[in-house]
Amino acid sequence: MRILSRVDELVLLSVWRLQENAYGVTIRKHIIKSTATDWSVGAIYDSLERLTEWEFLEASQGDPTPERGGRSKRYFKLTNNGIAALAHIKKIQEFMWGNLPDLEFLKE
Fold it and tell me: Is-contact 14 22, C-beta < 8 A?
């Protein structure tokens, strides 16, 4: 199983959180709000393409809208492979963080 990068993990988690409203713009806004960091459009779309290629995400086209000049939104949905990848990275992180001293202690 692939080990997700932090960006790929954030994208998958955002797609999961946003459910039916998961498309490029909302995913990027959710990640910016969650991390208090500006993320480039390219970073998000590169990750979306990669995760779709790896079959961690499934993409579908919405209906064209006048607000978008007749273009349709591309929606994303987590696949079973994506769920397994998130479970895998969560398990790794829990193991790596386990039994470490509290970080507050290190600030003193």
Answer: yes
Q: What residues contact 57, with CB distance under 8 A and at least 6 apart?
A: 12, 15, 48, 51, 76, 77, 78, 79, 82
Enumerate residues 6+ apart whose C-beta is below 8 A from 70: 64
Please check the confidence at residue 64 and state whether its pLDDT lies above 80: no
The contacts found for 90-98 with CB under 8 angstroms, 24 or more apart, are: 92/3
Q: Is pLDDT at 66 greater than 80 in this prediction?
A: no
For domain 6-97, give its CATH number from 1.25.40.390, 3.40.50.300, 3.20.20.70, 1.10.10.10: 1.10.10.10
Residue 79, CA distances (Å) to 9, 43, 56, 67, 85 in order: 14, 21, 5, 29, 10
